[in-house]
Amino acid sequence: MKPVISxxxxxxxxxxxxxxKQVLFDVNLDIHPGExxxxxxxxxxxxxxxxxLLGGLRSAQEGSLTILDREIRxxxxxxxxxxxxxxxxxxxxxxLMTFLTAKQNVRMSLELHDRYLNQDLDAMAVSxxxxxxxxxxxxxxxxxxxxxxxxxVAIARALISHPKIVLADEPTAALxxxxxxxxxxxxxKLAKEQQCTILLVTHDNRILDIADRIVYMEDGRLVSDGKxxxxxx
Length: 233
Known about the structure:
Blueprint: E1 5-14, E2 21-31, E3 36-40, H1 47-54, E4 62-67, E5 70-71, H2 77-84, E6 87-91, H3 102-111, H4 121-131, H5 147-159, E7 165-169, H6 177-194, E8 197-201, E9 213-218, E10 221-225, H7 229-232
Parallel strand pairs: 3-8, 3-9, 6-7, 7-8
Antiparallel strand pairs: 1-2, 1-4, 4-5, 9-10
Helix pairs in contact: 3-4, 3-5, 4-5, 5-6
């Protein structure tokens, strides 16, 4: 099975000249379709930097980074924009637009895709909110929702356009144990239904069991990579 993400000998630097600092060192990682991979490790180990590269939020500098069969090293802004249409993002600070309702926040994600323009976007958004248990909150603004509810809106927004890859950065960090558990189980269920690949960065040891495998980063290096059953098929 061909990986959806393939990283080979990836190095990354911040800054220029004397201030240039290497933050990722010789990272190698393959992630396969439908796999749920959790990346963990101490703060400052390079997890979020790697996630932003894998999400096409910045261009790779050294080595090879192939996402959905496209080489991202040296990619133009336009190429990265195209790539991002296939990726759903879920961040710790849910990043909802506070002046839009839950339904409008989810609908925004569909408006980026020409293929949905002839469809009833409001109905699709409400249906997705029902899937995450928030149909009754469709017309609420984020300020009227709890932390767990906001994060579920963010999941609905990330998954409604059926992305091939979902990248989640500390999605449970601001949530209590039950809300955090509900959120990741929801991601897991929807990903399995949609055959979507999830890479989730977390410090939350309570959710590690949802992963097909766990990769561990330290000081900009991938120090362990628990191979999954999926990769062997």
